[in-house]
């Protein structure tokens, strides 16, 4: 995954985290409201006990149960969000974000192997180029000697210079 896609993914997950935190704050407000209702119900319960009303007591018990359930749900929600974010952070640090991380790692390894093979081939070609340049220089030297011998108008000198050059080339190559 390239860096821009990773940054976009982190941004998206950060936005989701922010939305989840806002929802959590809303749930906490509802819980606070229910607690306040519970306190009010307790007051009514005290008054109802004094008056003998059982409807208020039933309402208080229901509110207490709802409060416990909501508190439990909030704790589960917070724990789930924390687990998700921890896993995401670990994957981000390792560089393996997304379902294709193994395939991407395999692709990167293959690309590295191909690069190494290309570099080795380039080195071989460079060595061959150096060898061919040396041969070319030798050939140019032979031609110069031949021209010098020809300019002197000495056909015997030309033949001798050519033989000497060729012997030198053969000995050098071996």
UniProtKB/TrEMBL annotation:
InterPro entries in the record: SIKE
Keyword terms, alphabetized: Coiled coil
Coiled-coil segments: 108-142
Family: Belongs to the SIKE family.
Name of this chain's protein: Uncharacterized protein
């Amino acid at each position: 995954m390239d860096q821009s896609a990773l940054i976009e993914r982190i941004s998206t997950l950060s936005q989701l985290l922010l939305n989840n935190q806002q929802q959590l704050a809303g749930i906490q407000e509802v819980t606070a409201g229910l607690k306040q209702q519970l306190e009010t119900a307790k007051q009514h319960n005290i008054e109802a006990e004094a008056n003998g009303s059982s409807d208020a007591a039933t309402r208080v018990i229901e509110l207490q149960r709802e409060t416990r359930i909501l508190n439990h749900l909030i704790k589960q929600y917070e724990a789930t969000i924390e687990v998700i974010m921890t896993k995401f952070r670990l994957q981000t640090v390792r560089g393996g974000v997304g379902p294709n991380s193994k395939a991407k790692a395999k692709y990167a390894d293959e690309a590295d192997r191909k690069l190494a093979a290309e570099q080795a081939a380039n080195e071989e070609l460079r060595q061959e180029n150096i060898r061919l340049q040396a041969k070319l220089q030798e050939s140019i030297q032979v031609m110069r000697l031949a021209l010098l011998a020809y300019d002197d108008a000495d056909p015997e000198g030309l033949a001798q210079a050519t033989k000497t050059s060729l012997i030198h080339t053969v000995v050098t190559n071996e």
